[in-house]
């Protein structure tokens, strides 16, 4: 109990995340049963539930000894449901966007739809690792007849062949496509050239009506963390918009002038409040295009292994995975293991059995390109499973 109190005292000055880690590590170290947490609604609920699940797992699943009807049990009651739900999801490796979908996205979607009425063009940025899962199902309706350019960003994160394949597929269905690596600034000039060509066309029409020229107005839209702000920063040549490697960085709509010819709207990443396709949702989670509060890290890492095994590039990914995770001497046959088993073995070997930490490492390694550069999706006519 003294240790548990120490844990709780320490946690009061820390963030929810560090509390989650601290609680599970302390529980594992001292083999404690976790203290029933108070019912929490909203943002903190899942984290606390996960903490509880992790701590309970680490402590051998012991349950509280509080008598039925006591305050501790009443306080903990709703947590049990959330907890069960979290365990269910852990098994399924599912994504529950409802746990993360931040309020600013709903607001941004509303404001964006207003702004879209007044723009000349839409630059839709997609993550080239998953070009189908990073397009909003309603984008066609939002854009209407407006010119739309699809920017396949993160081109550095896939192979040359996959890049060419996606460009040719999207062109074959009549889209205008540009490949970019917004971090290094590659391909960005092409976006500007398209905008300038549009500017000339618009201003020629205005001149014919006796109107003064004006800059082209384009909205840069897309899912969270696909690189919208980084692209604008490259176009403007300075860090005009906040950009960081996590979803949900841009929270407000903001116009940025590029030279005298182009105005770009930087918008928060917008995605549907519910993702019905769990596989697409898992891919978004793997690529870090949705917030980590919507999934359980270890379960997502397990789902990632399953997903990678289904890729046609698996024969190239597999040795890279084994090498990166230093699993060579374990002589594991990954093909015969489930994703969960893989995470467990990796956790035992490198993280003292802490599967959440192992999951974080695995996802970060994938996101950082340390197990190779490859697409998670194939164009529809090539996708087999
Ligand atoms: N490797 C690589 N990283 C990129 C690329 N484009 C952007 N990034 C990185 O991805 C992270 C996210 O970029 P942002 O521009 O903040 O993404 P965003 O779409 O504006 O994200 P939200 O504002 O959250 O919707 C940043 O750390 C960028 O440096 C790219 O082409 N390649
Ligand atoms: Mg942004």
UniProtKB/TrEMBL annotation:
Residues 52-74 are annotated as: Disordered. One of its GO terms (molecular function) is GTPase activity. It comes from Ostreococcus mediterraneus. This is G domain-containing protein. Residues 218-283 form the G domain. Residues 52-71 have a biased composition (Low complexity). Keywords: GTP-binding, Nucleotide-binding. InterPro entries: GTP-bd, GTP-bd_ortho_bundle_sf, GTP-bd_ribosome_bgen, P-loop_NTPase. Signal peptide: none annotated. GO terms for cellular component: mitochondrion. The keyword Nuclease does not apply. GO terms for biological process: mitochondrial translation. It comes from the Eukaryota. Gene3D superfamilies: 1.10.1580.10, P-loop containing nucleotide triphosphate hydrolases (3.40.50.300). CDD domains: YlqF. Pfam families: MMR_HSR1.
